[in-house]
Specification:
Elements (H helix, E strand, L loop, with lengths): L2 E6 L3 H15 L4 E7 L5 H9 L4 E3 L1 H4 L8 E4 L4 H13 L3 E2 L2 E2 L4 E2 L4 E2 L4 E2 L4 E2 L4 E2 L4 E2 L4 E2 L4 E2 L4 E2 L4 E2 L4 E2 L4 E2 L4 E2 L4 E2 L4 E2 L4 E2 L8 E3 L4 E2 L9
Bound molecules: coenzyme A.
Organism: Microbacterium saperdae
GO molecular function: transferase activity
InterPro entries: AcTrfase_PglD-like, Hexapep_transf_CS, PglD_N, Trans_hexapeptide_repeat, Trimer_LpxA-like_sf
Length: about 220
């Protein structure tokens, strides 16, 4: 049966998600993209959708009342907290999320992948990995063996999560960051681009640098 999908988010990651779906269709998957929803799309993003022939369906508030209930949704919004709020609206309306995995991604054995997950091109997921719901893995990110990524985690391009790492709900790992083996990144934390995490990260904090340090605890410039 053809899966009928709406993508929520017209921005960069929304269009990257469309690329994943188009690659899946080219590889033989039976998916129909109904269109894209966005509460406040930029004109430039709408132009890009028009160029690729994807309809803009309006805002979630406009579209959801007319949904039949058999559509699947993907929240293609990079910010974990926003993604969580948007996904709640769709699941409250009784819709199920779709998971899409680019054909070029490598997924190791015994890995478990939740609903609403987007895995883009060139991603490597090792063995015995657990990905919660609405996890985003951006291009060329690498997830080590036995890692657990809870719901609404975003792994930006080129980031590396080592083996046995516990990445808790709503964490954002910046582009090119590295989390060393066996560590925990607390819920809602942000790891800056290019940071190397060498110790557990407290929930809700932002860490940057090599080794990664809490930005709130860093000395002020010149101080
Ligand atoms: C860490 C991060 C979340 C901070 O964002 P922010 O709160 O808006 O912070 P600001 O840009 O105001 O910068 C605050 C300070 O941190 C520094 N800083 C910001 N990001 C940094 C990083 N990744 N590494 C080291 N220092 C960083 C800034 O230079 C600034 O320092 P200063 O106070 O000495 O001038 C953000 O810069 C980041 O790295 N996000 C990930 C980006 C990413 O992955 N992009 C790819 C998207 S596909």
């Amino acid at each position: 049966m053809t899966e009928r999908v709406v993508v929520v988010g017209a921005g960069g990651f929304g269009r990257e998600t469309l690329d994943v779906i188009e690659a899946l269709i080219a590889a033989g998957a039976s998916i129909q993209v109904l269109g894209v929803l966005d509460a406040a799309p930029r004109d430039a993003d709408l132009d890009q959708l028009t160029k690729r022939g994807i309809p803009y369906l309006g805002t979630e508030a406009e579209w959801l009342p007319g949904a039949t209930g058999d559509e699947r949704y993907i929240v293609a919004v990079g910010a974990p907290a926003v993604r969580r709020r948007v996904a709640a609206r769709f699941s409250d309306a009784g819709l199920r999320a779709a998971t899409v995995i680019h054909p070029s991604a490598v997924i190791g054995s015994q890995s478990r992948i939740g609903d609403g997950v987007v895995i883009t091109s060139g991603v490597q997921v090792s063995t015995n990995v657990t990905l919660g719901d609405h996890v985003h893995l951006n291009p060329a990110s690498v997830i080590g063996h036995d890692a657990v990524l809870s719901d609404f985690v975003s792994v930006n391009p080129g980031a590396i999560v080592s083996g046995n790492v516990d990445v808790r709900s709503g964490v954002l790992l910046g582009a090119g960051s590295v989390v060393l083996q066996g560590l925990a990144v607390g819920a809602g934390a942000t790891v800056g681009a290019s940071a190397c995490v060498t110790k557990d990260v407290e929930a809700g904090t932002t860490v940057v640098g090599v080794p990664a340090r809490d930005v709130a605890l860093r000395p002020l410039a010149g101080g």
